[in-house]
Protein: Nicotinate-nucleotide--dimethylbenzimidazole phosphoribosyltransferase
Organism: Amycolatopsis keratiniphila
Amino acid sequence: MRIATPDAAAEAAARARLDGLVKPLGSLGRLEDLAAWLSAAHGAVPPRPLDDVRVVVFAGDHGVSGMSAYPREVTAAMVRVFLAGKSGVSVLAGLAGAKVRVLDIAVDWDGADVPAEVTAHKVRRGSGAIDVEDALAEGEARAAFEHGLAIADEEIDGGADLLVPGDMGIGNTTICAAVVASLLGLLPEDVVGTGTGIDEDGRARKLAVVEAALIRAGAVKDPFALLTSLGSACLAATAGFLVQAAVRGVPVLLDGVFSGAAALVAREIAPGAERWWLAGHRSTEPSQAYALKALDLEPILDLGLRLGEGSGAVQAVPVLRAARAILADMGLLADLA
Ligand SMILES: O=C(O)c1ccc[n+]([C@@H]2O[C@H](COP(=O)([O-])O)[C@@H](O)[C@H]2O)c1
Ligand SMILES: Cc1cc2nc[nH]c2cc1C
């Protein structure tokens, strides 16, 4: 698996041009860093316009129950909402001119009446309850990862300039907490948040489940073993999606909790892949903050969001377009009369 290399010469050329633009040196702050980053990713100054932005929502259920403020049936119901274009990310992606594709990777339903393309990458129904059993069976983590590679290829071959991973899964924040704690050697207390909005009793139950899961799993070094023990098919597929974007040299805007955990695992599988990812926004969940810190990624936006779906990342798309526009359209100090 060969990760593409961002173009250092294009980055240097972008920095030189930014310094020569008609403004005080450095006065466009983070926009300048993003402009240089995007130039390196596209190997061009200015970078290409971000005309084709694609969100892929990975949907799946979990064996752990009672860890969320909402019942697991919401996951399947939300698949229909995405298909109807009525989800939060559908609306916000629409504003950013981005397309949304939802995929049932591991929803616990038969999905008989949704279009076949929605279930084309299905791995299983739900996953094991991580406090008492492995999330996945032998071979499923790798199979799901390979689905993620294929999904990224489909989007990139279809013309994507920028990819956004989204997630939908009641219980997602519990498994993300377990995976992030295991990878970074953290305590349940550090990483367990309130997810969809659980109360103190709910959080106490969630802490106990994450603690039991971490004890059951023990020290896991191999990322696929970690996905099998504590992860999910969606997490493995999202990791594959992130790795393949880096292999193909296509930039990614990460979203919230699920993106953070998947990105940490993906970096274990493919070190260097993180050079192709930006953090779109900061979630309120603590595991995401730890994941982003470990990945050395600074979120573009901080709006107090905790919806998931890719909803935070798509709102950073106009910021990236702004970063490109300054390089493309601003005048030069040298031309001042
Ligand atoms: O990404 C986030 O910031 C985020 C924070 C809390 C919840 N979510 C979404 O809510 C679901 C998981 O929450 P929970 O409480 O069921 O673990 C899942 O569908 C996520 O997309 C997402
Ligand atoms: C309604 C609803 C929508 C969501 N989108 C992502 N996670 C979600 C959780 C719930 C409960």
